[in-house]
Specification:
Elements: H1 14-25, H2 42-57, E1 61-64, E2 70-74, E3 83-89, H3 102-117, E4 126-131, H4 139-145, H5 163-169, E5 187-195, H6 200-204, E6 208-214, E7 216-225, E8 229-230, H7 242-257, E9 264-266, E10 270-273, E11 279-280, E12 283-292, H8 295-316, E13 319-328, E14 331-332, H9 335-347, E15 352-357, H10 363-366, E16 371-377, H11 393-417
Parallel strand pairs: 3-4, 3-5, 5-16, 6-15
Antiparallel strand pairs: 1-2, 2-4, 6-14, 6-16, 7-12, 7-13, 8-11, 9-12, 10-12
Helix pairs in contact: 1-3, 3-11, 7-8, 9-11
Length: about 425
């Protein structure tokens, strides 16, 4: 692929981008500088309206689809061509930071602003998408991919509010959500810029992460059944202690996760019954989360874990059962988009490395219908989903410029190949 000389390409307006990050962070601002914009909340609605206003000022037409996604469209020279799309989400976890999700939206907006400033248009139209409720249901991106579960009760909020009411509040419509689905010929490619939410880029001293794909994820509920009994009168050799067995399962998960590979595995929740100081535990319920870029590799890891668990059950005279709760398949980034992002980084004299995303993103749903790529910038100390999440102004600008250059190269690539 030919590298475009750096000076021939526009750069984003760094001051305007950073001001936008500050402005949006004031919506739902927490006392220590973090952000709380739960999906469908007044703060989420206010942020969505603010972005819509900015999109209009940047020469974009704005619509809201039935899944509640805000879609800003910047016309192309050949406006009939499939769109190049970017974007992310504005909703946060209860005590979130100002960068997770919002940075990808604002960088996409700044790309359009920078083109609009120069009266430049790509051959393809360009869309910036604000996806609905990424932090919980991902219903916005699932609406676009056509993978919304048909039962509305599945999406009922923890406070009991219906998805019908939630979507109506942000301009969506549950009864027409099938109309949010986009067809493969409508979107040429989707690029998402995001903070890493992990420590790898910072530890390696790299400015840009070229994402190989978003890992597949499996979740299980593990039940360990023993026999509760008196803690004082039951001899050690006669016990069927469910917590002892569960502890060995946790160590087995840790051992399997540390075999060669890029996988991660976590036991993050555990409940002990009857949870009394003078009773031998009779039952334990715990979670298992395991992730990797290869579903086949996850299967092999689970087979290894199953062998360990069978041995533990026999040794502790307990029954151990796994119940699957979630299965998300890996979403691999297109190789040519990885090359485009790497080439853009080189053109900007920015160091980069290839790595997987171990967190879920809207991009994994877009990969169902179109070519997908992701760009990461560093997260200080690997912190995210935290009020103390931080990415430096310089790193934010670098990421936005890589996004701009990548979209320009995508415009040429898809014009030449389609």
């Amino acid at each position: 692929m030919t590298t475009t000389p750096r000076m021939s390409l526009p750069l984003v307006n760094c001051d305007r981008l950073l001001q936008s990050i500050d402005d949006l962070a004031n919506v739902g601002r927490l006392p220590q500088g973090g952000v709380r914009r739960i999906a469908y909340s007044p703060e989420d609605c206010q942020a969505r309206q603010w972005v819509q206003n900015q999109m209009t000022q940047a020469g974009m037409t704005v619509r809201i689809d039935p899944a509640g996604n805000v879609i800003g469209r910047y016309p192309g020279q050949q406006d009939h061509l499939p769109v190049l799309a970017t974007g992310s989400h504005l909703d946060t976890v209860p005590c979130g930071g100002r960068y997770d999700g919002a940075f990808g939206v604002l960088a996409g907006l700044e790309v359009v602003r920078s083109l609009h400033d120069r009266n430049l248009h790509l051959r393809h139209p360009l869309e910036v998408i604000v996806f609905t409720d990424e932090e919980s249901s991902m219903i916005g991106s699932k609406g676009i991919s056509g993978r919304v579960f048909p039962d509305p009760d599945y999406y009922r909020r923890p406070d009991g509010e219906s998805i019908q009411d939630c979507l109506a509040r942000v301009g969506g419509n549950w009864d027409q959500i099938h109309l949010a689905q986009r067809q493969p010929h409508e979107i040429a490619a989707f690029l998402e810029l995001h903070v890493e939410q992990g420590p790898i880029l910072e530890s390696m001293g790299k400015a840009i992460g070229v994402i190989e794909g978003i890992v597949g994820q499996r979740r299980y509920q593990i039940s360990v059944e023993g026999q509760e009994n008196h803690a004082g009168t039951t001899p050690m050799y006669m016990r069927c202690d469910a917590l002892v067995a569960a502890s060995r399962v946790v160590l087995a998960v840790h051992e399997v996760a540390n075999t060669p590979g890029q996988q991660v595995a976590t036991v993050g929740q555990i409940q002990v019954f009857p949870n009394a100081v003078n009773v031998v535990p009779g039952r334990v319920e715990m979670s298992l989360d395991i992730r990797d870029l290869s579903s086949l590799h996850i299967d092999r890891l689970l087979e290894q874990l199953d062998l360990h668990v069978q041995e533990i059950a026999i040794a502790t005279n307990t029954k151990i059962r796994f119940e699957r709760r979630l299965r998300n398949e890996p979403a691999l980034a297109e190789p040519h988009l990885q090359e485009i992002i790497a080439t853009a980084s080189q053109a900007l004299d920015l160091s980069y490395t290839y790595l997987p995303s171990r967190a879920s993103h809207d991009a994994q749903e877009l990969a169902v219908i179109t070519d997908m790529g992701m760009i990461f910038v560093p997260s200080e100390n690997g912190l995210s989903h935290s009020e103390f999440e931080y990415t430096s102004p310089e790193e934010c600008v670098q990421g936005a410029n890589v996004l701009l250059h990548s979209l320009i190269q995508c415009d040429r690539y898809y014009s030449d190949t389609h």
